[in-house]
């Protein structure tokens, strides 16, 4: 039997309980408002996609950086951000302002604001998106990737606690399994939302859930915040938005986010008059591996690679300068799409894997997620790969482990897609790369980079293996990894001003409607422009959720 429910009017309605929605709700609560927070999933999934994240945050001139001898500044970070973003459209006016404001936040109160809420950081700062195309080109000039102690769950925890405290004192209503199909418009203003109540489920976090309807609902509110995430779980929408500059969309992709990241609120918001901009800007990874123990459909995990592995396309041709592991995500994606094939390869060694292979995701890093110092010392500093990396070496369908190059090449050929490899050319690439290692001089830019990177203490300590021959028996066995495109982030979304107010096609605010997080391109409809500097997605959720929550409360 279908039932209809109507909740009491609320001051602020938040649609989506990922990080941006939780932050927005917490800010509205802090301003003394009554909040209703709804989501299409069960309460088990509170925290959304952020809960599954590695917890990387972009900070500028932090104490962690200074302790490692990293000299950073707002000026340098601004140079990197705008060189990376490539803003070039009239509708980038608000995204530019969001970028400027976010850089001030990342250099200013972001760290202390999080510390006040109990969020701490791993002492070694990572160097993601290293660029390599010149000072004003893409990439981070210095390490800025701060890993949260507790990873994604550690970031969402204080904001879940704020919502639960508000619920306990009667100022928060939490409505799971409520899927919005319409924003209510009256006299040109959004005054709430209505939609479907979905059947209860006991599915574990992240697992797909039924879309069986059991009723409908309506919630009226003084202000409504859309914080429903992006489109990464919906391959149909990803392919529809795929831009020509990135080549053709892959026929085969892995999925780096749960199925509920479906982009459904984009269409609902557009119907209510919100402008969607920069939908062709997206952020997908090319180091995806099939999860041997999947949670959601086509579940992929990203390798967070150090810089040493030899990267080959599907035919066995080495990727051009500066497309080394960890240097230029979208540059590498665009290049690989131009090859006409959906996969590529790492050839590496156990010595490189144990030092340089990290896996993205809270569940793949139990030491950091569980704040377990003993396990961290045992897994990160001891000899051998971490336990989760070892499980992929043992069970992962994309991994090949052999004692010598010829056996490795034979196994690569037997893999699906391996028939595309020019084995003689692959052999030449490996032998030539190893020959360059044998003296202190080299014309191989990747080897020169490796030697340079070890001057940074963080890389030398836990991130970059000493340069060595891939065929060195003492560094073995040799390892090949088949890599896939992994969907992840939408860099465009609902156009907003700096208060998070949703704008219509004429650039005017829609009364009563706000947006935050990935639904708003992490702010403004595209704060990153074309490319991200990494550590900026969770930070964008924090900042845009804070802006929208405070403005909605006003």
TrEMBL record:
Positions of the FAD-dependent oxidoreductase 2 FAD-binding domain: 11-538
A single Gene Ontology molecular function, please? oxidoreductase activity, acting on the CH-CH group of donors
Q: Does the keyword Repeat apply?
A: no
Q: Which UniProt keywords apply?
A: Flavoprotein, Oxidoreductase
Q: Does the keyword Oxidoreductase apply?
A: yes
What domain of life?
A: Bacteria
Q: Which NCBIfam families match?
A: PRK12834.1
Q: Which PANTHER family match?
A: 3-KETOSTEROID-DELTA-1-DEHYDROGENASE, KSDD-LIKE STEROID DEHYDROGENASE RV0785
Q: What is this protein called?
A: Fumarate/succinate/L-aspartate dehydrogenases
Annotated organism of origin:
Microbacterium esteraromaticum
